[in-house]
Amino acid sequence: MMPSLAPLKCLTAVALGIALLAAAAPARAADLTTVRFVYDWPVADFDMVPIVVGQEKGFYEKHGLKVDVLFPPDAQTTARMLATKRADIGFEATTDLIFAANQGVPVVAIANFTQSNSWCLIGRPNEPIDMSKLKGKSIGIFTDSWTKAMMGFVLKKAGLQDSDVQQIIATDDDIPMLLTKKIDIATNAAAYGLAEIEDGAHETPTMACDGDIGVPDIPVWTFTASPDWLKTNGATAKAWLAATAEAIDWSVAHPKEAAQLFTKAYPPSGSENYNLIGWTYTAGLMKGPDGYFKQTDKQWSVLAEALKDIGQIPAVKSPSTYYTNDYIP
C-alpha cells in the first residue's frame, strides 16, 4: 500500500509559505546599506520628525537602507564632517553651502527640506515689532551662519549698523530670555518660537517675517552630501531621498502620530505637544510648486547675491557650485 501523500503536501505547503514570507520580508539587517545622517545641531529637534518616522515605520528599510543619526559638536561642523567622510548625508542651513563653497569645502545640496524662509523676529505676546524702532533694542541671536546672514538683512532693512542694536548670544535658547524680558526681541524659525511660547505660556508670540524685515524668501534648510561620496553612492542618495519623501508624506498626513514617534525617540527634545506644534507648522512648508525637495538656480543666486551685498562673501559662484537636483526621485 502506497504511503499517503498528505504529509508530503503539508510539508511542501509549509516550505512554500516560508519561501514566500522570506521573499516578502524586508531586507535583513546584514543586507541593508548604512547611511550616516548628520544633523545641523548638537541635539535633536522636530525638524528630524521625518527621519525618525522613516526609521520607525520602515521606509528606509523598504529602500534597503539603515540610517544612523549623528550629531555635530556645534552648528558649524556638519559640512566638514561630510567633507572628511565622517558622515554621508547632512542637514544644513542653505547659507552653510554658500560659505562652504567660498572656503573650498567640498559639499553640495541635494534637496531642499522646507521650501520657504520661515526665519522671523519674535516678540512677546501682544507686543508688536516695529522695524522703525529697532535701534537700541537687545536681540537674541545664535551663532549659526543662517542667523548671522539674516541679521545682516534685518539691519540693512532698518538702516542700522551692528553697533545700533545689542546682539545677545543665546548659549541654549533665546525664547526664555525673551519671556523673562532679558532681551527685547528673539530670533528663530517661526515654528520654534510658536512651539515654545504656545506650549509653555499658552499664548501666541508676535512675529515679523519675510519682506517686512528684509529677508529673502528662500529655503532655510537643505540636505547635503560631498561630491566624492555621491560619485560612488548615487543610487544610495536617490534611495535615501525616496524613502525620506515617503516618510514626509506619512508625517504630514499623521502629524500627531509622527510627533509621538519623534518624542519617544528623543525625549529631551521637548514635550509631545511642543513637537506637534512645531512639526505641524513645519509640515506646511514642505511642498513647493514642484513638490518636495526641488531646488532652483534662482534661490541660490538670490541668497549668494544677498550675502555678497552685505559683505558675508567676496564673490558669487555659479548656482551649480552649490546644488544638484540629480538625486531627487
Short description:
The protein is 44% helix and 15% strand. The protein is built from 13 helices and 10 strands.
Mean pLDDT: 90
Major beta sheet, specifics? 5 strands, mixed
| Overall geometric form | globular
Question: What string gives the helices and strands in order?
Answer: HEHHEHEHEEEHEHEHEEHHHHH
> CATH first level of the largest domain: which class?
Alpha Beta
Q: Specify the oligomeric state.
A: single chain
| Rg calc | 23 Å
Overall SS class: alpha/beta
Question: Helical element count?
Answer: 13
Please explain how this structure is put together.
The protein is an alpha/beta fold and 329 residues long. The protein has two domains: 30-116 and 219-322, 3-Layer(aba) Sandwich (D-Maltodextrin-Binding Protein, domain 2), CATH 3.40.190; 119-213, Periplasmic binding protein-like II (D-Maltodextrin-Binding Protein, domain 2, 3-Layer(aba) Sandwich). It is built from 13 helices and ten strands. Helix 6 links the parallel strand 6 (138-141) and strand 7. Helix 2 (49-56) packs across helix 10 (255-265), helix 8 runs antiparallel to helix 11 and helix 10 packs across helix 11. The protein starts with 5 loop residues before the first helix and ends in a 7-residue tail after the last helix. Mean pLDDT is 90; it is low at 1-25.
